[in-house]
Amino acid sequence: MSFKFYPLKALLLGLVLLGIKANTQAQLVFTKEVKNTTTGGDGTLANMGDELLYTITVKNNGTQNYIAAKMYDNVPPGVIYKTGSTVLNTTTLTDKPGGIMPYAGDGNAVNAENYMAGVLPPGQKATVMFRVTVTGNGGSIFNNATIDATQGNVSTIQATNTVYTNIQKDAGCNIIYQTTPAVVSFGRNTPDDQKAYSWVRTVDTITGKGSAVLYDGPNGATKSATTGNNVSGPLLDGCAAIAYDKASQRIYFVNNVAGANLSYIDMSTSPPLSAYRWSGTPLSTNGVSVNRMGMGSDGYCYALTSDASDLIRFKMNSSGTPVINHLGPLTNANTNGGHNVRDARNGETGGDIFADGSGKLYLITNNSSMYKINPATLVATYMGTMKVNGQVVDDNNPFTSQSLAIDLYGNVFINGAYNEVFKLDLQTMNAVSVNSGSSGVYMSGDYTTCAFPVLNSSIIAKKTYTDIDGDGHINGGDTVEYKITVTNIGNINAAGVYMYDYIPPSTTYIKNTTKMNGIAVPDASGGVMPFAKTGTPNGKMVNTLGEDPGIVLPTQDNSAVVTFRVRTEPNKQVCNQSKITLTDADGNIMFVNSSDPTNTGQTPTCFYSDGVLPLINLKFKGALQEQKSVLNWTMNGDDGVATYDVEYSENGTVFTKAGTVAAKENSNIANSYQFTDAEHTFSTTRWYRLRVNQKGGSVNYSGVIMLNTNKLDVEAMPNPFDRDVNVQILVKSAEQVRIRLIDFSGREVYTTSEQLAIGSNSISIRIPAGLSKGMYMLDIRSGKEVLFQKKLLKK
Q1: Class assignment of domain 457-597?
Q2: Which of the residues 5, 159, 268, 660 has an alpha carbon 20 to 30 A from that of 726?
């Protein structure tokens, strides 16, 4: 298993300021182009079998060397790599084991000609070329390359432009052939042989109707495939497995009985057509019938036993004799969860297979589960379950996928033991009927085409954040909600999609705040954010709402959206990225990293947390009781706080620690604390503040309160003020007061209510961030009685 850089996004290796990164990216000119060497064209168009030449150029336009330059470029879906064709500058590179292109997977070094690996000097360039053969015959081939290079201590990740090749479609490969009974509907006296799937017709994909008979199984010509002599008896007799090979213009088939010999219908001649059979060429040799068959884009025909115990591959040799290989039983991908491709008890039997333009097969079973099959590894990856008319297939909405064929546009047509044809949209996984009535619509044993469209799942991710208190300014102690949107921009489901998101430094995760698609996700053991869990693999699967874990359907509307909340520390730059991984059909782990949509380039999501705690998080006040200073404070959600140090000063400038109180570490509630200073009882004027010690090591301070034993009725200071105002109030009985700050247009810009003890009280007020400079009125009332009013100047 290897790791791939996903071509659309890249990992940022080191957190750098955006300005620096944008500057370094501008110094690298990184481009990609494609040419069609078969036609001599520019590569925007191609036919199946054409050769494409990709050229990637990276040039250093700066004044300093780039070192450790590494390029990643995966061979795109819809083509096959031409082994030994990769050239760096003028040197042919050795392929990776198994004939893998040198820059696929975990990438490879690039360098300017005559320089060491990874070195790009100023003004120099590196050029990489490789060739592929187009194996799809419908859809679009697209890809780009990514480079990771270092200049000084700054790592730059940059992608090329994306190049596209549209495959010119062969209209003949949109024709669907089917095996049907003799008639559309059966009467009570219809003979059994008239009900068998023994007639070949085409299907009208607009109306669902069947054509006239192309081959009559009971009555058509039957011959030996070896000698060409006539043989007795029908050859096409109850067939549920057919595959059309355009190259030979044959429809290969086997009848739906164990040990049936391989046969074909010659479609290259004018009607009446003939069927041919080899002797001693059973596709199934384990006593299980073959009822699933289809051509692959690699030129082989594939057949699958009804229980998936044997995937069979065959091809004609130079003498026209079939060479049959029994590849073995299918195995389940690690990401399949409770879905088992060989679970006959739960309906994972029957159905049919079709192929894409990248050499992969797709199986939809009788119970509507879809699996992607890699013939090289026999691994079947669960891709989701189709719906019918928007409804889940179950006992209330039964459906059997017996016959399948795909067209050049990626539409899958489905039929079975019913007079109805359905079209499955792979982007929504929903099948709808194409016919308005049953007239002329046949039941079928199997469908087949020669279409191999490009099917591809491509993942991107973006990450944003929101300051929950909504003031637009993130302060230390604020709650920030991250939102990660994982989107499949391909044309088929992505399967086994994991997301890993570490909790960024200088923040603390708020337990039980994680949601996916608006639904709460339980924390991992120990209160760990579920997507921050480490292991093999890291993180947790994400999915489109309503889909199985790991399944992300195409389009923005089907994105998987994860949110979680953290508490910030003051005076910190906070940056992080989410990492999305999925395993492709070849066993390579591909990954993308989230990007900040507000920034240019491939950057992490960052913000700066200011060094002050907003008043909503901390309230601090004090009172004199029997010459002792009694200090009270509340903190809304202090799970990120370790301890509070109460600090004392005689002059309001130099502070020393008077005591320490451990934090209660309760999130989402107001935690109340009290500390009595019995030591400093002789000073007339006493100043106090709180030192808030965060778990991550950061420190923050509250505003300062002053207690005065001279029994001042009411006082407010300093004046002018910046962020904090200390209010001293002497009351003769315990009472509640309301404190307001009003601008000179009469608008209330701040208000709080405080419960005061008998005697002298001191309250620290933190004014909200963003308050404009100017004159304000401080208004303090007990009920309707005005206790104090004073003009204060905001600096």
Answers
A1: mainly beta
A2: 660
